[in-house]
Amino acid sequence: MTMQQSPTILIVDDNHENLKTLFHFLDTHHFEVLVARDGETALELIEYQCPDLILLDVMMPGIDGFETCRRLKADAKTQAIPIMFMTALSETVNKVKGFELGAVDYVTKPIHQEEVLARINTHLTIRNLQQQLQAKNAELETTNVELESKNAELGTKNAELDAFSYTVAHDLKNPLGYLISMSDFLRDEESEQLSPQAHQCLQHIFKSSKKMIDIVNALLLLANISKQDIELTPLDMGDIIYRVQERLAFMLKQSQGEIITPKNWPVVLGYAAWVEEIWVNYLSNGLKYGGQPPRLELSVTPSQDMIRFNVHDNGAGLSQEAMAKLFTPFTRLHKTAEGHGLGLSIVQRIVEKLGGKVGVESELGVGSVFYFTLHQASKL
User: Least crowded by CB within 10 Å, which of 62, 65, 133, 193?
Assistant: First the structure.
């Protein structure tokens, strides 16, 4: 029977007393503790032993904590390590700068040990859940590649993948839901007793947990598409687009984007809830990766018994290699952007279940047209 390894914490601080106090406190709580007196030493140490979390002082000789954080987040090997700043600085601008550089939290000196312990445990829990999800996603990718290579087993591939996705998502949903509910409860019920810094910490925990639950819900939707039996009905596409724009109102305002819609929509057959998800994925991607500001033009192209719906953006366009990867599950072309790489694979699964096709046409420097097709109501 193997013993579970204790989490490793790296403390980076030029103050000997702070190092000594935190080292002994964390050691008594069964953490593996590493120490460094400056940013350069910390970066060298991490080359040989990667910690699970870093407590990073801001004011240090040599490169300061902000620059150390920037270098860690710029390196693919260390960018996922949670960083908590330790600072005596009280100015809001310095706290904001830490979050902008990728830190997950901060504690103000003089250090309150029990507060540090609580925050460390919270972020290690979140990191552990993220790693579990990443590991399961990697397993899913491997499973998908293996199944793709077995043409004789093509009929069973999607069923196995859906079952696995459903199991993964279902197992993660309960602990994530608990994390969201508890952080939301503390944020609402204990706000008067919390410091502004602690309240901001809870806000970040709540937002991070919500992002993870979005990934879980996407996995569940992906698994349910092929399992759920639905009845195709005539769709009021204008009404669907109205609901989609309501859902994306904040993103639209934040990006200062524009969505141009046709005056009239043809009637097609589909399942309204799923078609709404198609538009949400296409339009949210257009608002994220379109021009500055994004301008999305929606159009309709009849083709025999099918209707093609188009989203034309004013982005930079895509290469042939990029277009070939677009609808592959767990693939993200924009590596620095947030996301889980499931959106377009969900679109493809939905449209194929509804009897249509998806695709993209693009030219570098011109923009892209993402499209999907559905059956005309009068032609099926």
Answer: 193
Residue among 109, 309, 350 nearest 225 (CA) = 350
**Residue 255 token pair:** 């990006």
Distance (Å, whole) CA 37 – CA 57: 10
CATH for the 8-111 domain, from 3.40.50.10380, 3.40.50.2300, 3.40.50.720, 3.20.20.70: 3.40.50.2300
Residue 331 confidence (pLDDT): 55
Q: In sequence order, what DSSP letters do the residues of 59-111 get, joined into one string?
A: S-SSS-HHHHHHHHHHSTTTTTS-EEEEE----HHHHHHHHHTT--EEEESSP
CA atoms of 215 and 176, how far apart (whole Å):
11
CA 348/CA 334 separation, integer angstroms: 19
The pLDDT tens digits for 34-90 are 999 999 999 999 988 889 999 999 888 889 999 999 999 999 889 989 999 988 766
CATH homologous superfamily of 233-375: Histidine kinase-like ATPase, C-terminal domain (3.30.565.10)
